[in-house]
Specification:
The protein is built from no helices and 11 strands. By secondary structure, the protein is mostly beta strands. Strands 2, 4, 5, 6, 9, 10 and 11 form a 7-stranded mixed β-sheet that branches. A 4-stranded antiparallel β-sheet has the order 1-3-8-7, with no helix packed on it. The N and C termini lie far apart (about 40 Å).
Amino acid sequence: QVQLVESGGGLVQAGGSLRLTCAASGRTVSGYYMAWFRQAPGKEREFVASISWSGDSTWYGDFVKGRFIITRNNNLNTAYLTMNFLEPEDTAIYYCAASSWSWGRSENEYAIWGQGTRVTVSS
């Protein structure tokens, strides 16, 4: 069973950057698709980005507009989300997720989830 733990969230000013880390344990995630979702206060969880097994292919939510980069290091059993040019609208809890069969935009495609890390962007 894979467990995911996110870290790296915090308070940042608008225009700043953060790198979120998703550390997996229990078994290797090299055979899993990995993704990041986020949930802002009062809103539904939304897709941020996903990455293929090898890391060669990535997919981003429309709002990202080149500001975020998802990467992974299978040797370290870790995935990352580097966020640049942060905006107050990016304030949310960010969740890491893993799927053995899909890297789509729907949270229903992911069976394994972390507890989330909070990101707050001040204006």
